[in-house]
Design brief:
alpha+beta, nine-stranded antiparallel beta sheet, two-stranded antiparallel ribbon
């Protein structure tokens, strides 16, 4: 079943691929993607054939690309401000989607086409191997008043997502701190068996979405594929989905609403 939620908190889905660069020891933090100049021209042609012909540069002209390792420098869309989009930079490719989100199946097709385009572009530019350092899949969610968030982030994290960060020491006399309104910036990292050899990241913070206070939750998996990269993304998506559902309290599950079968629409 390929589905979305009726009141999904989803903000953005981000799929990323990173490949090896040549480090410049003389310039700390700098690195070279020797195939990028030619590959970026070819990639533009490849994605234009897919309908992504609107190109947006994210850096001023003349910026040395060796100072932008693993950072996107160009966006490709099918129409101005349209989604999904592709992004490319020295050593990095991304496919991104925001609501309205039609489910994994549709985004997967876009991701697979974009990944094939960047692979073809680099091969035509002279890079024979298709080795990647890492793949990453990230789901960014924002829980607002629609999902019961009332501004007390610590309470929301504890009661609805099973995450608790507390202070267990007594405070000095005369100190008055409203811990109920504490803001938590949480980052958890752990090995994951799905996909094998990857690492799972959970990050929680406070923010805003649609001009409302929000509890931000990002779930991500990063690792190196052993085989088909798109199959790796399938496994990562399933692991993130199961983890997301396991975190939700019954009350929050009701507020998010039932699953909507995209295939049946």
């Amino acid at each position: 079943m390929d589905f979305t939620y009726q009141q999904a908190p989803l903000v953005e889905v981000i799929a990323e691929a990173f490949w090896p660069l040549i480090q410049l020891s003389a310039i700390p933090g700098a690195a070279v993607d020797p195939f990028f100049p030619r590959a970026s021209v070819q990639f533009r042609e490849e994605v234009a054939a897919l309908g992504f012909s609107v190109v947006e540069s994210l850096v001023p002209p003349g910026v040395p690309m060796e100072m932008m390792p693993n950072q996107v420098v160009t966006r490709y869309r099918s129409r101005p401000e349209g989604w999904p989009l592709f992004q490319l930079g020295p050593g990095v490719f991304t496919a991104n989607m925001v609501p309205p989100y039609a489910g994994w199946g549709e985004f997967r097709s876009t991701l697979a086409a974009g990944y094939a385009a960047v692979t073809t572009a680099y091969q035509k530019a002279g890079r024979v191997d298709a080795e990647v350092d890492n793949l990453s899949l990230r789901y960014v969610n924002a829980f607002t008043a629609t999902h019961g968030f009332d501004g007390r982030q610590a309470t929301f994290l504890h009661e609805h997502l099973g995450l608790r960060v507390d202070v267990e020491r007594d405070l000095p006399d005369g100190v008055r701190i409203d811990w109920d309104m504490r803001e938590i910036h949480l980052s958890l990292h752990a090995p994951s068996t799905a996909p094998g050899g990857s690492r799972f990241t959970l990050m929680a913070s406070v923010g805003s979405h649609a001009n409302q206070p929000a509890c931000i939750l990002e779930l991500a998996i990063r690792g190196k594929p052993d085989g088909d990269p798109v199959a790796w993304f399938d496994q990562a998506r399933e692991a993130i989905r199961k983890t997301f559902e396991a975190l939700l309290s019954p009350a929050l599950q009701k507020l998010i609403g039932p699953k909507v079968d995209r295939a049946a629409r």
